[in-house]
Design a protein that fits this description.
By secondary structure, the protein is of the alpha/beta class. The chain has one domain: 3-Layer(aba) Sandwich (Beta-carbonic Anhydrase, Chain A), CATH 3.40.1050. Strands 2-1-3-4-5 form a five-stranded mixed beta sheet. Helix 3 links the parallel strand 1 and strand 2. Helix 5 packs across helix 6. It is globular, with a radius of gyration of 19 Å. The N and C termini lie far apart (56 Å). This is Carbonic anhydrase. One of its GO terms (molecular function) is zinc ion binding. It comes from Arthrospiribacter ruber. Belongs to the beta-class carbonic anhydrase family.
């Protein structure tokens, strides 16, 4: 069995902390004062799509929650608690749903094979498949179909956020929460704004 050396991450951490401290003696002491993130991000747990790496996020900028296939489930008290804290305690007014092409959770839901306990979670994505059955069936290429499902899933989770009591109560209080649909593309390293893309296609 291959031996994995996790100590390299601790060594990296020491170097990283030293560089930041040397450049700004108050960097870490300022962090202890509290957080004021500019947005909340719901992303996938996939190890290849780290928002901090891909988006160049500094500490304290994003309030992040991650799960398999970036799903908003109305029975998921974990996500709902995170969202409520973000909106009500941190005053966040922008929420990003951040999916990615090549998502294993999306593929597993599409293939509809038995995955044990995971099937209960994937049922949320299977609902997306059912709602967009005709559109997906019209796509012949399997890779394109899965990519489209990734996009549809992100957009569907935006709609699910709108159905939460947290979002509705914010609207009733006159608080505008902007929702953003983003997808990371492994082939280019770029993040695509699905809403901006949709608006652009409507103008053409």
């Amino acid at each position: 069995m291959c031996q994995i050396n996790l100590n390299k991450y601790l060594d990296h951490n020491k170097d990283w902390a030293k560089k930041l401290f040397d450049s700004n003696n108050n960097y870490f002491s300022d962090l202890t004062e509290g957080q004021s993130p500019i947005a909340m991000l719901l992303g996938c747990s996939d190890s290849r799509v780290s928002p901090s790496k891909v988006l160049g996020i500094d500490l304290g900028e994003l309030f992040i929650h991650r799960n398999i296939a970036n799903v908003v489930s109305h029975s998921d008290l974990n996500f709902l608690s995170v969202m409520q804290y973000a909106v009500e305690n941190l005053g966040i007014r922008n929420i990003i749903v951040y999916g990615h092409y090549g998502c294993g959770g999306i593929k597993a839901a599409y293939e509809n094979k038995s995955n044990g306990l995971l099937d209960n979670w994937l049922a949320n994505i299977k609902d997306v498949i059912r709602h967009h059955k005709d559109e997906l069936n019209s796509i012949q290429d399997e890779a394109e179909k899965l990519n489209k499902l990734v996009e549809l899933n992100v957009l569907e989770q935006i709609e699910n956020i709108k159905q939460t009591s947290i979002y509705k109560e914010a609207l009733e209080m006159g608080i505008e929460i902007k929702l953003h649909a983003w997808v990371f593309d492994f082939s280019s390293g770029l993040v695509h704004d699905l809403k901006a893309r949709r608006e652009l296609s409507m103008q053409e």
